[in-house]
Amino acid sequence: LIEDEIEYLMPLVKNYGKGFKGNLLYQLSLRYVDLCIKRLFERLRNEVYAIGTGMVERGISDKHIAVIGNNSYDWFRMHTTVLCGLGVTIPLDKGLPYEEIESSLSRSYADVLVFDEAHKEHAERLRKEGNTQVKNFICMQETEGFESITAILEEGKAFRPDEVVSYGDAVKFTVGALGYTPLCAVEGDGS
What we know:
By secondary structure, this protein is an alpha/beta fold. About 35% of the residues lie in helices and about 25% in strands. The strands form two sheets. The protein has a seven-stranded mixed sheet with strand order 7-6-5-3-4-9-8, with helices on both faces. A two-stranded antiparallel sheet has the order 1-2. The longest helix has 17 residues, at about 40-55.
């Protein structure tokens, strides 16, 4: 276990590979299909580094990154990646109607939208209508017509460990509500 107080998220993520190496992050058993999904802390750390590196290599850093999707490993991994210093993360409620998603993206100045397949139709409409400043639409799964986190992850894995892009440690938390859906912005500023 970690004995020191953790002041920032990135040192905790870095420690996943040391203090928690081989430990289970979570396990999901689907008995009706005889499937057991396991995720290790070390895997999360490696994937956070790879996605962060891949995003920076694509020029996606120091951006406002909105994340919307069902509660899942993919959502948690993406949110954690942004929190570790990639930019400002704007977690959007998965149940928002289209108009609220569009309004939230505009009010938060989101440059990037990361979404799951359940929100693909909203992403297509947002891209088509162009009423927000979102330039990058990235799906958490492989889906036709959009960049995917899987591809970014693989690009990031291609770098040797000494080439991995380093990004920040500090996290800032802001919540705002002005008669609209409350927004939450969390920023990793590299301090």
